[in-house]
């Protein structure tokens, strides 16, 4: 990983990080880090990147020894376009995939409600790049992605030894983190980031004050788990005493 000089993409048996390039000026990330969790019956992708991410995901999966044609599950950590946008192109090639998301983000992903970030970006940002991002959201305001399984806090998915669902609202109403028990890995979506090797919280520039408070409050639920690895979608892998780092973040925010 680029933030932490971690070169091996395989964390443990049953879990691999995919490093993909966004290929877009509108996202301030050099790479995205979807996660692949697998066992004998399941090949499950966590988040799908932007609409142009298909080839990068396919190639990275191939490099790790997986055929995207065998993908049978996708879990979304939340509704943002850089997490759900790649689904359409994946489904066009691999139509029989069980999609999953938290019940509170389901209506956004299915197009019943405009995506949360589109309203905020439209009201707050005037720069050229953010206007492009807003157009992305407008284009996808009627997503029509069917979520086949809705998730709730404390659900346990029978995949690769067990995946715990942790509801962490704030960044979006239905944002979730996913804990892979066997490898002690917490997949955090946009709940956490890494900057200069340090674990930091949500991107406050994309959120209102109340939602930021909610996001930091949500971090407390992660402390119920013994974490050895944190995978952030925009920054990659963090391994430096994750539980303490999360606790320190909470304490710093509450000062």
Give the key terms.
255 residues, alpha/beta, Metallo-beta-lactamase, Chain A, six-stranded mixed β-sheet, 27% helix, disordered N terminus
General description of the model:
The chain is of the alpha/beta class. It has one domain: Metallo-beta-lactamase, Chain A (4-Layer Sandwich). The chain is 27% helix and 21% strand. It is built from eight helices and 15 strands. It has helices at 54-63, 81-84, 87-93, 106-109, 116-124, 128-139, 209-218, 242-254, and strands at 10-12, 15-17, 35-38, 43-46, 73-75, 98-102, 149-151, 156-157, 163-167, 176-180, 185-187, 193-195, 198-200, 229-232, 236-238. The strands form three sheets. Strands 1-2-3-4-5-6-7 form a seven-stranded mixed β-sheet, with no helix packed on it. A hairpin with an 8-residue loop joins β9 (163-167) and β10. α5 (116-124) packs antiparallel against α6 (128-139). The longest helix is centred in the C-terminal third of the chain and has 13 residues, at 242-254. The protein is globular and about 50 Å long. Mean pLDDT is 88; it is low at 1-7.
């Amino acid at each position: 990983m680029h933030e932490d000089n971690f070169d091996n993409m395989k964390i443990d048996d049953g879990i691999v990080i995919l490093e993909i390039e966004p290929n877009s000026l509108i996202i301030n990330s050099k790479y995205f880090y979807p996660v692949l969790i697998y066992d004998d019956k399941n090949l499950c992708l966590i988040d799908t990147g932007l609409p142009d991410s298909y080839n990068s995901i396919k190639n990275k999966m191939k490099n790790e020894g997986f055929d995207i044609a065998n993908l049978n599950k996708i879990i979304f950590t939340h509704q943002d376009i850089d997490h759900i946008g790649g689904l359409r192109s994946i489904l066009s090639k691999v139509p029989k995939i069980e999609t999953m998301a938290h019940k509170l983000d389901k209506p956004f992903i299915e197009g019943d409600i405009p995506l949360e970030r589109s309203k905020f970006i439209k009201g707050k940002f005037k720069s050229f790049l953010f206007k492009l991002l807003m157009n992305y959201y407008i284009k996808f305001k009627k997503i029509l992605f069917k979520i086949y399984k809705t998730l709730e806090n404390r659900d346990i998915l029978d995949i690769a030894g067990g995946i715990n669902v942790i509801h962490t609202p704030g960044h979006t109403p239905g944002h979730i983190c996913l804990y892979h028990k066997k490898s002690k890995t917490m997949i955090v979506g946009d709940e956490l980031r890494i900057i200069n090797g340090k674990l930091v919280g949500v991107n406050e520039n994309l959120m209102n004050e109340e939602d930021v408070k909610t996001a930091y409050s949500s971090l407390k639920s992660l402390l119920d788990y013994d974490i050895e690895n944190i995978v952030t979608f925009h920054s990659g892998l963090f391994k430096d005493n994750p539980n303490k780092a999360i606790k320190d973040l909470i304490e710093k925010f509450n000062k």
